[in-house]
# Entry
Amino acid sequence: MTITHLPPFDITLKSGSLAVREALRHLLERLGPLELDIEEAGTVELVLAEALNNIVEHAYRAPEAAGPICIRCSHKKDGLHLRIRDRGLSMPDGPLADGGPARTEMISGDLPEGGFGWFLIRDLAKDVQYRRVGIENRLDLRLAVAMNATRGGSVHELRP
Amino acid sequence: MELSTKTEEPLRIVSVREPRIDAAVAIEFKDAMRARTEDGPNVVVLDLSQVQFIDSSGLGAIVSVMKTMSSQRQLVLAGLTPTVEKVFRLTRMDTVFRVFVTLEGALATLRT
# Structure
């Protein structure tokens, strides 16, 4: 069984909700050789969409402050490692610390319309870590998809 | 945001003719949905069978539409594709809405 191993790659975008769409499309295209199934592709798209939307809506909150976002994607034995960097406002304490399950016990008039984003990231991604490094926000996470190497078989390197 | 609306008493069916309900269109979707559900039958079936992707903003917009409907009225979801279904399941919003696998199934049940 020959297994595709993707070399690391970067995708850079300027903050904006349409740019997020474009970046997601681009990323999934780059992951094409991994032949993710619909479940795995959905996980990748969802987690990345939430992380990027969070940057667009909070880190670069002011429209005139829209700045660069850089995504580095590395494919390793234990899945896809993503590092997402931006130069916007730092993340306040909290979202990673709590963000429990959506509270469906509340009566419908009080149902939350937001706050699902971090919940989805925490639920779907592994090893989520946020750090402020100088003027940069750095979010690292791992997606347990395309873990070919753990199923055995040789790894076939794709040269860029 | 392209929505198509059909009224078949006692139901109103709103079909989303877009592949995505994401942050880029969430507000537009919410406004368009409100305009389509202001009046008419009490049960509104939201047909999501053409929607391949929804994010938390899109989910929030659907919740918001439901919340603005009066308490006698109901927003029912039908035709969830895999990623859309995943978002509703993980956030447990599938327990808040009545969810049907297909539009046909929803219509068959709700018409009776």
